[in-house]
Amino acid sequence: MILGIIIVVIGGLYFYDYIRTRNNPNNNKTLEDYYKDAGYTYINPLIDVKYLGGISDISIKNRIDYTLTKEGLLLLYSDIDQIPVINSKYTKQKLIKWDNIKDISLQTEQSIKEKVSLGKLVCFGIFAFAMSGKEKLSTKEYIIINVNDPKGEYNICLESKDNQNTIEKLNKRIA
After folding, report:
1. Mean per-residue pLDDT for 58-79?
2. Residue 155 lies in a domain
3. Does 131 reside within a domain?
């Protein structure tokens, strides 16, 4: 009796899965296909960086994925605690076109502090005003992307475990 119920339940689950996958047109799509459907040409996997600020539309609290596409650096982000996925109803997109990226540089925390408060404000938020002039030198480096698009000029501050590799990937695209 119990064996019969188990067989019926397993058979029902198998049949449900069969019907679900048979009627799903997306079951054989690759990641490149999803980007193509969204209007982008996927060229590289996600780059591993942490967003520290610079874009007024995006909070540092957002979950953000960065993808290199033929068109530009694509930021996928979500306002809620959802993993950003292309074409998801929870995901917002921001494309920074390669033509709009003017410069990508690696800067130390000290060099950012020496600049006008805007650079400090981008990377360190309101804590930038609390930074004093005499502090021990920090060797921590940040990736600064200077963007000039129709909304104006701004700097995006990113942090990566492998800054040099990330900058090389980005510079290949803007060169």
Report:
1. 82
2. yes
3. yes
For residue 4, being part of any structural domain is answered with yes
Secondary structure (DSSP) of the chain:
-HHHHHHHHHHHHHHHHHHHHHT-TTTT--HHHHHHHTT--EEEEEE-EEEEE--TT--TTSEEEEEEESSEEEEEEESSSS---TT-TTEEEEEEEGGGEEEEEEEEHHHHHHS-HHHHHHHHGGGGGG--S-------EEEEEEEEETTEEEEEEEEETTHHHHHHHHHHHH-
In this predicted structure, the answer to whether residue 104 has a pLDDT above a threshold of 80 is yes
pLDDT reported for residue 102: 92
Domain that holds residue 128: 101-174
Q: In the structure encoding, which two tokens stand for residue 144, read together?
A: 């600064």
What residues does 155 pair with on adjacent strands?
Answer: 146
Is 121 inside any structural domain? yes
